[in-house]
Amino acid sequence: MTKRSSERPDDSTLLQACHARSIELLKRNLTDGGILAATPGERAEKRGYTAIFGRDAAVCAIGMAVSGDKQLEQAAVTGLHTLASHQAPNGQIAKFVDLHRQEADFWYLGCIDSTLWWLIALAILDRREQPRGLLRRYSKRIKLAIQWLLAQEHQRFFLLQQNEASDWADIMPRSGFVLYTNALWYFVKLLFGVDRARESHENFNGLFHPFSARLAEYRRARLLNEYVLKNGRDRDLYLSFVNFSFWGDEGDVFGNVLAVLMGLTDKRATRRTLDALTKAHVGDPYPVRAVTHPIRQHSSLWRPYMARHRQNHVWQYHNGGIWPMVGGFWVAALAADGRGEQAQRDLVGMARSCAVRDWAFTEWLHGKTLAPRGMPGQSWNAAAFLMAEYAVAGGGKLFAP
């Protein structure tokens, strides 16, 4: 069989190695309480990575469910059980659960996306019967979680509202209506039949991409859009967030990719979004950089906490660093849109990023120098690779409602 023009002779070997290494890493990080965020060690324990994180466990559950490895498939749900057992009385799912202390942590400003990811992972595993009857088992907890989310929903926009630094990008200034969070929320609505999904879809496109959408009749929407339309920078991507008189146009890659994957874009918007991200070279040489235009210290959006641990300076961490985990969702979005050759090429790029420092599966890499940063042995890097590999192989649309 003739190889694709974008595929080097050793690409298939690399992909096979990455698959095996991903399986190996996930098994190494697996505990009776679920999958740890990173491989145990002194540094990981000191920084709190040896815990069951809501978003990490959910992403890992999805990747493990399609891994083809029986042990991982059976263990995919374990972390979700741990999170369920530590659910807050009001329905919120914790940012993480410390297994040693048996203690849940809900972050400084509250963590909004753990609840969303927990619900999504439950639905995907239940659909695959891994195990059967999962949604029925947790029906009361699911109802409580959705009730908590509805308490965060604006009653005219039908989109979630949040504080800044309270989702996966936990030292970024996104607040108000946040793209990433609301892409997940819309998908949760589809999965669980939550009311007002149509309005959420319409207002999502109206607020986050006012350049092409019909302006909402609601006067509050016109006011928000007025500020953006006068000063917006990148009109091909969705805004990362919209607040009263300020917004994010740094080009949030994860949020834009999720908008495509979670069914919020029509064909035109899908093409516009993926073309814009491709043009910005977010996947070169490794997929993907977290933003296309990092927030600089002279920007009005800069916050002093972004310099915490010297992490979020330009082209670092969530402010332009390369995240292999997000790369997995990028590859899945390309595959879902029929961009097979590009998806295959970037799957190889993702494998190369995981292989840096002898398969360190490092948390993130510098967006320009490509230096590996953050915590090595990241479980969700391995899981996201397996998920992306499954998508490229045509295993099915995991994110179909």
Low-confidence stretches: 1-7
H/E element order: HEEHEHHHEEHHHEHHHEEHHHHEEH
Number of helices: 16
Cα(first) to Cα(last) distance is 35 Å
Nearest-integer average pLDDT = 93
Helical proportion?
40-55%
Strand tally = 10
Strand content: 5-15%
Strand order of the largest sheet: 3-4-5
What about the largest sheet?
3 strands, antiparallel
Global geometry: globular
Could you tell me the radius of gyration in angstroms?
A: 20 Å
Q: Class by helix and strand content?
A: mainly alpha
Would you give an account of this structure?
- The protein is mainly α and 401 residues long.
- It has a domain at 31-151.
- Helix content is 47%, strand content 5%.
- The protein is built from 16 helices and ten strands.
- It has helices spanning 11-28, 42-46, 54-65, 70-75, 78-85, 113-127, 134-137, 139-150, 179-192, 197-208, 219-231, 253-261, 267-279, 324-336, 340-359, 379-392; strands at 30-31, 34-35, 52-53, 96-98, 103-105, 177-178, 241-242, 247-248, 364-365, 372-373.
- The chain has a three-stranded antiparallel β-sheet with strand order 3-4-5. It has a three-stranded antiparallel β-sheet with strand order 6-7-8.
- Strand 7 (241-242) and strand 8 (247-248) form a beta hairpin.
- Mean pLDDT is 93; it is low at 1-7.
